[in-house]
Amino acid sequence: MAQDLSKKELLRLEVEQLRKEVKNPRAPVSRTGKEIKDYVEAQAGRDPLLRGVPEDRNPFKEKGGCLRS
User: Fold this and answer.
1) Structure letter (DSSP) for residue 11
2) Signal sequence: where (predicted)?
3) Among candidates 28, 2, 30, which has minimal Cα distance to 17?
4) Which of 7, 9, 25, 58 is most solvent-facing, going by the fewest CB within 10 Å?
5) Which residues, 6+ apart, have CB-to-CB distance to 35 below 8 Å?
6) Contact predicate 40/32, CB 8 Å
7) Beta strands in the chain, from DSSP E residues, in sequence order
8) In order along the chain (69 residues), what is the average pLDDT of each group of 10 residues?
9) First CA to last CA across the chain, in angstroms?
10) Can you say how many angstroms the Cα of residue 56 is from the centroid of all Cα atoms in its chain?
């Protein structure tokens, strides 16, 4: 699609996008970073990547073992 548009049309689309983005509410990184950190720490107890999956609920655990003769 971008190949079919002239340079003027592409610039118009870019200006429209920038006008939309400037209306988005902004927050300082110092505040949002703390909020993200607090959220991650609060959810850490339920995170299977941090705690692991109980073996009885692990769908990827091999069902059988190797047999030696």
Assistant:
1) H
2) none
3) 2
4) 25
5) none
6) no
7) none
8) 82 96 94 94 88 83 70
9) 65
10) 28
